[in-house]
Specification:
The structure is a single chain. The protein is an alpha+beta fold. The protein has two domains: 203 residues, Cytochrome Bc1 Complex, Chain A, domain 1, CATH 3.30.830; 191 residues, Cytochrome Bc1 Complex, Chain A, domain 1 (2-Layer Sandwich), CATH 3.30.830.10. The chain contains 15 helices and eleven strands. Helix 9 packs across helix 15, helix 10 packs antiparallel against helix 11 and helix 12 runs antiparallel to helix 14. The N terminus is likely disordered.
Length: 451
């Protein structure tokens, strides 16, 4: 995170003789529809006038928290192997050319609760990219040689993350927040779990979890919704439903604070301070999102202002929130000099305590509110984000909230709402702290957690 380059101040221009045009008005949220096929496949359509593209997002409602320990990383491995070949597109090059050959882009990602495959192309190719996504998720060949190769690729991906101190600190923080639970594991699994999986285990898991009733297709852009539904219905006709998997609930975190210190001979110490958060169905999730904006989401946030601008302790500092079915997390990350680790932790805790003790000012709340709303509206100029906004809510089982409804909920929040949520979460014995870098392991780092 860096500050903008400074530029000379522009010359003052005289006010025009006529009144300026009126300010812009809030547009209506896009019209969306959800259609459920007999097989349980849900299709979300979001027609958007005035665009040239269409984005297609195919969610599989399974992620790393659904995996048994011995198969940790199997969702991520399946996602990799899906791109390696199908009967109609036998090689990874054939699959890539199917999208890139029409000027499109595509990719996939595995999360803790969802796996996502997506593609974006000119709108007149929308049926084609829908076909490609269903082809790779339904008809992957899972050839032994492809599995072996992708296992090694993922091992290198894991090795890369273990060489990055920020990644090591973040993974250690998750293990502290969710000890002995799938939410605390690396989505990629471990080198051992990935290498030990058999082809039979991989195919069995994919066949059980990749079913129409565990999938959501979301399409946004210059589309005709009825045509999308008709095309998908014919494409997946005869595909039987399966049994939706159930994740293991996250047990309460025992009293702490909980610490992990990992010495590394690097130039800078990376620290992560984590707190159990809220589920995605919690009524306070909007207040927590706004609280996070105030705390560490931007260059005007409290953590950035205090640690970087006022004290010069860190170049990069920030916070983020995540919401799951039954829990969530808020994580603060910073990179500091080894001699400043204790001070940085103390300053972070002071800012948490201040949010508990004092309501934020109306001016600070309004600034954070406008930041949050503005970033949301800017992102919704893209067809991918619109498909994601509606598709993700359906995939995780939430009631659909339009962007304007979400903005109205944020507008209704008060300083007391933010303070109340801070009081719910910022409790000393629920904090975890991971430290990676040239620091002594025998130091009592818990003394700096002064909340």
């Amino acid at each position: 995170m860096s500050t903008p380059h400074s530029t000379p101040s522009p010359k003052r221009i005289p006010s025009p003789a006529v009144s300026p045009p009126p300010a812009g008005v809030m547009p209506e949220s896009p019209q969306h529809a959800v259609h459920t096929l007999d097989s349980g496949l849900r299709i979300v359509t979001v027609p958007l006038p005035g665009v040239y593209s269409a984005s297609v997002l195919l969610y599989v409602t399974v992620g790393s928290r659904y995996e048994p320990n011995e198969l940790a990383g199997i969702c991520h491995l399946i996602e990799h192997v899906a791109f390696k070949g199908t009967p109609s597109r036998p090689s990874s090059s054939d699959i890539a050319l199917a999208v890139e050959g029409i000027g499109g882009v595509f990719n996939a990602s595995t999360g803790k609760e969802l796996t996502l495959y997506w593609a974006k192309a000119a709108a007149h190719h929308v049926f084609h990219i829908v076909d490609v996504l269903f082809d790779i998720t339904r008809h992957s060949l899972f050839r032994p040689e492809d599995i072996a190769k992708e296992k090694q690729v993922i091992v290198e991906e894991i090795n890369e993350s273990l060489d990055i101190p920020q990644e090591v600190a973040a993974l250690a923080c998750m293990r502290l927040l969710f000890p002995n639970h799938p939410l605390g594991r690396d989505v990629a699994g471990s080198r051992e779990s990935v290498l030990n999986m058999t082809r039979d285990q991989i195919v069995t898991f994919a066949e059980a979890t990749y079913r129409p009733n565990t999938m959501v297709l979301s399409v946004a852009g210059a589309i005709v919704p009825e045509a999308i539904v008709e095309h998908v219905a014919s494409l997946v006709d005869g595909w039987p439903a399966g049994t939706s998997p159930t994740p293991e609930p996250a047990p309460p975190l025992p009293p702490g604070p909980h610490l992990a210190v990992i010495p590394r001979p690097v130039e800078q110490v990376q620290l992560c301070l984590g707190i159990r958060g809220l589920s995605r169905n919690d009524d306070d999730r909007y207040a927590l999102t706004l609280l996070n904006t105030i705390l560490g989401e931007s260059m005007s946030s409290r953590l950035f202002t205090r640690l970087r601008e006022d004290l010069g302790l860190a170049y990069a500092v920030g916070s983020s929130v995540a919401f799951y079915a039954d829990t969530g997390d808020l994580v603060i990350e910073a990179g500091v000099d080894a001699q400043h680790v204790g001070l940085a932790v103390e300053v972070i805790c002071e800012e948490l305590a201040r949010l508990v003790a004092q309501p934020v000012s109306a001016a600070e709340l309004d600034a954070a509110r406008e930041f949050l709303k503005g970033r949301l509206l800017l992102s919704l100029e893209d067809t991918y984000t619109n498909a994601s906004w509606y598709g993700h809510q359906v995939a995780v089982g939430n009631a659909i909230i339009s962007p304007n409804e979400a903005i109205a909920r944020v507008d209704a929040l008060t300083p007391e709402d933010v303070q109340r949520v801070a009081g719910r979460l910022f409790v000393r014995d629920q904090l975890v702290l991971s430290i990676v870098g040239p620091v002594p392991e025998d130091h009592d780092w818990s003394q700096h957690i002064c909340l």
